[in-house]
């Protein structure tokens, strides 16, 4: 069981490294935000697995919970900040819906 | 018995996490990537953490029950926070005026 | 189309809320109930997170939960209406299993697209606008979050006049019925269906 959890942790780290590509190369700032958010949500699970590997679940679960909240607030703050179009080379036009339902 | 349940739940969660990463890397634009990130990551976290909570219960005591309940609390938080974070990101994209990717054949309709 | 004024939106919503809710009966009872519910929730969270049951830790928890409940007394449950709260909690409990099933279904759909050889061939992204009958803030938030979690759609905006803008990953004509069903289920869960 220990080996299985270790393998799961390593697989998660591989996925995080792949998501890092999106976080590093964009192309736009919001794409980077998507990548960073994906890494953060995997980190929460990774922290709990690490807690099991070190047999300190009680402590690492608290850290995971705090990290989940921190990640959420970081994403909210960053996306609020980019409301002001900083660093976004986007077209200046209104995005309108193509399909309307009543 | 509990171990089998743990392995099944965790493997299922890892499949969804892998799908989320593939979606983030392969989808054509920012909006479609958010579909993969917002949905698949949430279910992946739910399944993996459910598996870990079950594994944690194995020598059953008050302390392990509390730890499993805390994992449940974290899952509940992720279930409320993840769609909200997705919404915040998509809102930033729309306000900045990023055009969504539309298929050529749909464009002509 | 002019950009949406956030100030105007929130006052609109408040007016709608005030019009739909009956006036409070006794303000002191309402305030006390609101404080009590917040305190119980916070104290429960404290007990769960600390995991210590001796008198010292429990009294520390009670003191700090009471303090935070008093600070945020008009934040968490401003109406303090226990009957409505209990009913909507029961409604949410009934709604959650159906939502989980839908989440699993839509996730398998997106998973298949993500692992396909050529994902761009399979998807038809569109931005859709729809009107919703839901009035209260909590039902609207629940509906918007449910849309994000389920059938291949993400909520972009909920604007004044209850227009919901959605980005659909794989637009099909069946999406509309699925969202309508979800809307009526949310309405039923919060007791808004007439």
What report would you give on this structure?
The complex is a heterotrimer of chains A (102), B (109) and C (194). Chain A is built from 3 helices and 1 strand. Chain A is mostly helical and 102 residues long. Chain A has a domain of 62 residues. The longest helix of chain A has 25 residues. The mean pLDDT of chain A is 83. Chain B is mainly alpha-helical and 109 residues long. Chain B has one domain. Chain B is elongated and about 60 Å long. Chain C is elongated. With 194 residues, chain C is mainly alpha-helical. Chain C has a 3-stranded antiparallel beta sheet, with helices on one face. Chain C folds into 2 domains: 47 residues, no CATH class; 108 residues, no CATH class. The two termini of chain C are 33 Å apart. In chain C, helix 2 packs across helix 3 and helix 4 runs antiparallel to helix 7. The model of chain C has no long low-confidence stretch (mean pLDDT 75). Helix content of chain C is 63%, strand content 10%. Chains in contact: A-B, A-C, B-C. At the A-B interface, helix 1, helix 2 and helix 3 of A face helix 1, helix 2 and helix 3 of B.
